[in-house]
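Here's what a typical entry looks like (Chemotaxis protein CheA):
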Amino acid sequence: MDMNEIKEIFFQECEEQLAELESGLLKMNDGDRDPETVNAVFRAVHSIKGGAGAFGLDDLVAFAHVFETTLDCVRSNKLEPTQDVLKVMLKSADVLADLTNAARDGGSVDESRSRGLVKELEALANGELPSPSAAFEAPAPAAPAPVAVAAVKPTDESGFEPIPFSFDDFSDDETFEITFKPRFELYSKGNDATLLLRDLSRLGEMSIYCNMDALPALDELDPEAAYFYWVITLKTDKGEDAIRTVFEFAEWDCDLTITAVAAETEAAPAEELPMVPVPFDLSALDDGPEAPASEKSDASAAVAAAETASNVTQIASAAARVEKKESAAAANAAAAAAAAQNNAAANAAGQTIRVDLDRVDRLINLVGELVINQAMLSQSVIENDTTGTSSINMGLEELQQLTREIQDSVMAIRAQPVKPVFQRMSRIVREVADMVGKSIRLVTEGENTEVDKTVIDKLAEPLTHMIRNAVDHGIESPEKRTAAGKDPEGTIKLTAKHRSGRILIELQDDGAGINRERVKQKAIDNDLISPDANLTDEEIDNLIFAPGFSTADKISDISGRGVGMDVVKRSIQALGGRINITSKPGQGSVFTMSLPLTLAVLDGMVVTVAGQTLVVPLTAIVETLQPEASAIHSFGANHRLISIRNSFCPLVDVGRILNFRATQANPVEGVALLVESEGGGQRALMVDAIQGQRQVVIKSLEANYTHVPGIAAATILGDGRVALILDVDAVVGASRGQALRQEVSLAAAG
């Protein structure tokens, strides 16, 4: 790979680290004080800083270093992660993301904001806690104290020169006792313990002890294990941060403790330690011919073991010299076995791969065509084989099963959790809340709910509009909430869950709810409705989706509830989804989005209506039944009900709704499909006959033809005919008096 490819991989990993950072900070903000959570947050910033240094991204390195220093204070219990402290850190995580994006895309960041946060982070590291009143204040654009961070540059074969630090606190020599215990992961990732020890020796005067007590006999040696550890006494004026910098790429794969030792109680004499004293001689670490075993002392054997800890063959050789009981042949055999195990471990390490999304899309399209051709083949054989027991039929059944499994597996490749989108909303809540001076907490549930990648990509825009409007106009100011007896801190709850083969995303706020009188008056003023219009609460609530509608007195950067909500509705409908609103004055509002899990396939019931073949999404069907004359009841001129288990359900003639026929059909001569729709309750859809149940590939009408009211999409059947997929919600809405027009949601239940 060239450098650009490596850099792209780094930025992809940065996205994962930034997600881990925000997730951990939000857990801490909710009261999680688990050391592993704190370590994960520190590790994310630490990894970004290390990688950015390798590419010379100085601005990113400098900010990450200050952020990392403050997080280290939390990790070492020098700084209590209070709500106010975490607000600063969450803002810092946002700036770190901006710097990463700027480094990748060549953009710029708000320097005054980053400088202000650097100043706040340094104040926190120095023990200066932020005042609670500063929670909603923008950081002052003051120049930060200088941060001494140098670009990482290669020096020699040992790797990279440690990043130098300049702190007055460490101007005098200090003595540190360091315990360095590698785990096997350190060696499997290509790290070398001796190079780390060499870099450590450059910080000052150092003595080292190697403990080899855990080294087993050669026949019991595990070539992937780590048996040695070191206790080091280091006298340096560089400070603890410089020591940790040496281990920055290995700290998570070893047990590392660093303890400052008072001058009068420095490390214990060698005779008090159950270890082999090893004089640290840099020349012993140089690459060169190995000295004969007869010329090495026990101590130099320990150095040899240290310098070759990552090489399995030399570990076996060192073990042989220590034991002095095994033959060279046994050592070679152990080395060969170790190499084989290393190769097996390397092959087992790759658990995930990155695949270009276009390749996955092409694969999905091909599998869709495979499903269509399999259906056509099956239909053709059925029409020409009357026995139904031929070997061809049996083979086709197996082919159908395999095709279904392939399709399910391919669709699972595109399924991803909604967590990344939900995490992005956390930043929007923080930024907008700061702008309007409100205290708002975002609560998320069901972050691991999986949905098609295409749906996730297109979900961010409508959610952003809804979040901004909820923060700006859904949640009251702290003063109004207090006066109403509410918690001054508002809550927005974002949840995702699967239901009936679809994904439901709810955005709930505990604000004042929709002011229906004001909404209606604004609609009258904007000539959206007539002054004498008699609207239900639901119809008034849905006025906020009208284009250009807003309850805001003046346009702001954030906008009022309604501005952009027409975009929300169009975006959701474009995904084959729908959106509903429920609101209670004084208690808040709930926006419910129902989306298909995938935009590629669905399980459907193939039916006949007035000579036309339709597909009804199976997830919308509760049951099917054959109506009896005694169960049919008429009311009004054109309305009929069907009695189902001592309850009445409206009967809807699909052929009449879609204008396939001019008069209503006789229910007794057809089949009723009891369906469940979003917001419309249960309805019994009247069709002429049921052909069967099939999995069909969704083909967009808008992309290939034009929009058809009442129809969600189309598909190709096994006999090559095109069948229309019914939009159940549109049909149910039409049965309630709503006209089939462009604005009605045409959703294909996936």
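Residues 305 and 553 are 76 Å apart (CA to CA).

More examples are in the samples folder.
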